[in-house]
Write a structure and sequence with these properties.
The chain is of the alpha+beta class. It is 31% helix and 17% strand.
Length: 123
Amino acid sequence: MTHDSYPMTTLKLYDPPLCCSSGVCGPSVDPVLVRVNADLQWLKSRGVAVERYNLAQQPADFATNPLVRERLQAKGENALPLAFVDDELVAARFYPTRDQFARLLGLDTEDTEPACDSEGCCG
């Protein structure tokens, strides 16, 4: 199946405060964020529209989404990250794996092999 035949879907990811838009910066990079960045690139290559919001850099985007605002008011930054597929909340307080993203977005899970190894080769 080519990415042209995948359904056009939007993934919105609301991150906790990060040092930069991807969180892959600074002297000690979180390997989870390296994986997430690779996974988001993989999703984009399959035709998924990815929108990513960083609480430190885009607080207004958090305030304008009622569910995000409600979760932040209830749990503070511990509510994050939040992932939405076509405005439906699909994950809270963790980043889904590539395989989970694929299933949530209705993509083939056969080619979900991560681009990075456990050492975080790409970043």
